[in-house]
Amino acid sequence: MSLSSKDINLILNFLNEDTCGSSLTFEQISAQFQHNISTSDYLRVGNALVLLLQNRDLVPTPQQRLIILFLFNDMYKSEPQSIHMNPFAPVFISILQNNNGENLSTQKHFHWFISPVTQHERWFVKTLINNNNNVKEFLKKTPNQILQTGLPTTKDDSGKDELKEKIQERLQQLPVLVQCHLPAVIDDPEVNYYGFDTLIGGPRHRSNDSRQTIERLLSNNAMEQTIHPEFLRLVPPLHECTIDELVWLSPIDYDSSLFTWDSTLCISNTINHEIRQLMDKAYQGALNLQQQQKLLDELDNDPNLVYHIGLVPSKLPILVENSPLISIQCLLKLISSNQMTEYLSSLLNMDMSLHSMEVVNRLSTSMELPQEFLHLYISTCIKTCEETKDKYLQNRFVRLVSVFIQSLIRNKVIDIRDLFLDIQGFCINFRHIKEAGALFQLVKSYELRNNNNDTTPTAMISTPLTANDE
């Protein structure tokens, strides 16, 4: 990705050959750089500066190179990691090497082709990576003042070998093909050798040409292009290889019987998505007839769909109140589920209502519910009627419960003998209500039949649970 014209102009102003040595201190350069360039662009700008540093004719003066080396360190000085994690740490290693054969081998290993530098530049880099007290003094100086400073008499190579070792460890983690590359932009060796750039036009003409060249290079993506080897392989044979033939770079043979291709993998299921959306609406309120019928039809077409629509025991009470028919259909599909006990427990613990009793009544006629669940549910309904303080609401609950219990008795879902005392007490307490009286008469008639050993079967009837308000 190329740099913007704003970033290019900022870099060119910093590296102006005529003024870069004395116009700004390093502290001022840092402030302007961080103010005008965002953190996300540091790597792109750094790559551009590496391109300039690799071509000595573009930054021929030590002042320019000092500014570039300073920016490499300044861009990542706030990072908590060590200096070896700086993306441009290999440049520092190349700078710190001497000018003999060791320098060439190091540059080849780290893939940074940096032109020879002066002793002041090498001392400057060594001070930056050691982060000693001299760095604060450097910030207040201009590049010219750094070059005029006397060099230390003692040679201090502390930290260089350790930094080099850490960088080598980090580079070994990269693929080999990534490490083998050359920059796409190289200078013309004949120009550097014969000095044509200095003979024609003088320094001012050279500066103008360098500026134009830098602008053209940084305005396109040449700085991020590299020349690297391609991983080539022989074309595999058309026929199967025999044992004595060459082993090709191809997948290992495997037994096809161990694998089965799943044709439904990564294929979007729009039906499931629509059903989940309808279920989400059902949790929020009642569905219209068309939506409810579509949901019921899809559940009938795919029995396993109920496991993928987000129905969990905790959401069952909401679904029962909003869409009892859908709740019944879902519970019937979940009969074989290992969570069926949890769904029944959720149904048992929810507040008593017409819809909850309708669901239990319909389930009892379609499947065999546990007797313990039915007994607990009836006891909970009777207890709710007794504890309700509002007379109107209490009468309505009593009528609903009476009709509900009558339906269970007629369909022989429950054994009246197990709940005879509870139902009889319920009927006596609310004997002034017509439905409770009818339930009492039904209980008495079944008691007489049992006493007479009358075992005539009765057809199962799903009685609608309704109660007319008096």
UniProtKB/TrEMBL annotation:
One annotated Gene Ontology cellular component of this protein: CCR4-NOT complex
N-terminal signal peptide: none
Stretches of the chain forming a coiled coil according to its record: none
Keywords: Cytoplasm, Nucleus, RNA-mediated gene silencing, Transcription, Transcription regulation
Keyword match Cell division: no
Domain of life, source organism: Eukaryota
Subcellular location: Cytoplasm; Nucleus
InterPro entries assigned: CNOT11
A GO biological process held by the record: regulatory ncRNA-mediated gene silencing
Record's keyword annotation contains Ligase: no
Family: Belongs to the CNOT11 family.
Protein name: CCR4-NOT transcription complex subunit 11
